[in-house]
Design brief:
With about 375 residues, this protein is α+β, with helices and mostly antiparallel strands. It has helices at about 10, 20-35, 45-60, 60-75, 90-95, 125-130, 275-280, 340-350, 360-370, and strands spanning about 115-120, 130-140, 160, 170-175, 180-185, 195, 210-220, 230, 245-255, 260, 265-275, 280-285, 290-295, 305-310, 325-330. The protein contains nine helices and 15 strands.
Amino acid sequence: MASARRDYYDILGVQPGASDKEIKSAFRRLARELHPDVSDHPEAQERFREAAEAYEVLSKPETRELYDRYGHEGLRTGGFRPSDFTNITDLFSTFFGDELFGGAGFGSRRARGADVMAEVAVELEEAARGVKREVRIPVAVPCETCEATGAAPGTSPETCRACGGSGRLQSVSSSIFGQFIRTQTCRACNGAGEVAATPCPDCKGTRRRTDERVLEIDVPPGIHDGQRIRLSGEGHAGDLGGRAGDAYVLVHVRPDPRFVRDGNDVISTVDLTMSEAALGAQTTVPTLDGEVELEFKPGTQPGEIRVLRGKGMPVLQGFGRGDHRLLVNVAVPRNLSDEQRKLLEEFARAEHEENYKAEEGFFEKLRAAFR
């Protein structure tokens, strides 16, 4: 989205020090201009979504503070994700109710808190057995100083004079179709029905403050790179008593130089010398469960696949494990002494077709391994 690059203040056409009232006014003006019933501009809806994202950030003290300090990167690190609206009507309903272009109002509401995002990185072996991690995230929490009333200690909020404590304002308008009653959230109290004559010094009357929360994450066995873990209710606190948002933890599984993951299977290679492959050998190979010793029979061929059943990754939220497939790589010597060359030349003169007769073709072995 373009708003991820453009300055939010520029989008709304206000200065960085603009008041909440100026920001809301600027957004209302843009909303009226870009409403699909008014504007026939082909990019009207996308531009409105851009303005909505800017307003969503700048209208909340905790996200505005993050943006003013650290810009877009600070919002991303702090876990901000713009709301996902299915259509433009949802956008208007979220920010204004029905105060634009008529409709039945919903009055004051308890707004759900925003979600937050965090990231953790684990090793492939940790992803195989499961691991615990701690993450620190800044979240908006109810202000303890004023007990989420917004009023300074020793004072109490007063009933809003504009709405009489209902948190809603109604207006009646007439048209050729009759009278329309419009209900909107009271701007004076933002739907709370109360105002703080003396705002709380800690939260500045917003009822919430930003705090750092430490969360312990249980990374389940078998998790894949890029999957998310949801922690219900661990996001930003809601407004007016609304429920808190959720925390989403994005898990990164670091690549392991020894293995390649293929779904729930892991693949690795085992190196044998030409002599070991011809005469047979025992060698130690790494697995997710530690090192194991394997025996390779005489005549082991390059490209042969050895399958270790049940030695792969656990099935996430299921039963069993994948397999570990070992691909045999036979190393051919590059530098030979005169004596070694003579010995190989003697062997070359003595070898015959029976030495290379295959018991089973390569592709048959490959298909058998996958079976």
